[in-house]
Amino acid sequence: MKKILIYSALFASGIVTAFIVLLIYGLSFTQNVIIQDVTKQYCHASRLVVFGSLAAGYISDSSKQNKDLEKLPHAFKIIPTGTIATIFLNPFESVYVPPQYLGVYHINASGHEGILVFQVKDGVLYGSVRFPNWANGVWEPLKGVSIKNNSIAFTRSVTTEQERLKTGAREYFTQYYVGTYKDNGNKIIGFYKSRGAKYLFEAYRKK
């Protein structure tokens, strides 16, 4: 019984430690996002970190309109990802990303082979991924994509019924990716967290 309690405590401690590490890492990013919840309310968030079923960051009060959200009062909050319908980059914030960090990559996420794409359009950073042999094999828009220096972070998730039907996923999920660019942007090495577990991923620029 004591061993079970010790293992349980170590497991819980590991989860808390991983969340704190991701939180500190995420708070170093300044990319702003807009969140729409399942009740169609909007809020502005900066330095958002998604970890399993939770999202944390500096989040504004809610509004029925996607307008002037940055001017609303903000506070550090932790919210369930199940209440989030959509996360998208702030369309009013222009970003610059070095060209060598954009383009088409071949991604291997724990044995799952796919295509990873990053691009900037009208000052907004976009990302998408496709795993041809997973579920429906469709393109999935990534959420909260942020590139700073040689580091990248983004979220792949299915949190609504519409997303589940489109992708063919059997259940809802959230995967938080953190990576580092290598070889002048030709390679990305990192890990992603899913349901409390940590997995490796690699991406190589397609030639």
Descriptors for this entry?
207 residues; alpha+beta; SH3 type barrels; Lipocalin; 2 domains; nine-stranded antiparallel sheet; five-stranded antiparallel sheet; 2 helices; 14 strands; globular
Q: Would you report the number of β strands?
A: 14
CATH fold naming of the largest domain: Lipocalin
**Rg, alpha carbons:** 17 Å
Biggest sheet architecture: 9 strands, antiparallel
Tell me which oligomeric state these chains represent: single chain
Number of domains: 2
Strand content: over 45%
Secondary-structure-derived class: alpha+beta
By CATH reckoning, the class of the largest domain would read: Mainly Beta
How does this structure look, described?
- There is one protein chain.
- This protein has 207 residues and is an alpha+beta fold.
- The protein has two domains: 2-89, SH3 type barrels (Roll); 99-205, Quinohemoprotein amine dehydrogenase alpha subunit, domain 2 (Lipocalin, Beta Barrel), CATH 2.40.128.
- The chain is 16% helix and 50% strand.
- The chain contains two helices and 14 strands; from the N terminus they run αβββββββββββαβββ.
- It has helices at residues 2-27, 161-167, and strands at residues 32-37, 42-51, 54-60, 74-80, 84-89, 103-109, 112-121, 124-130, 139-141, 143-148, 151-158, 173-182, 187-194, 197-205.
- Strands 9-8-7-6-14-13-12-11-10 form a nine-stranded antiparallel beta sheet. A five-stranded antiparallel beta sheet has the order 4-3-2-1-5.
- A hairpin with a 2-residue loop joins β6 and β7 (112-121).
- The longest helix is centred in the first third of the chain and has 26 residues, at 2-27.
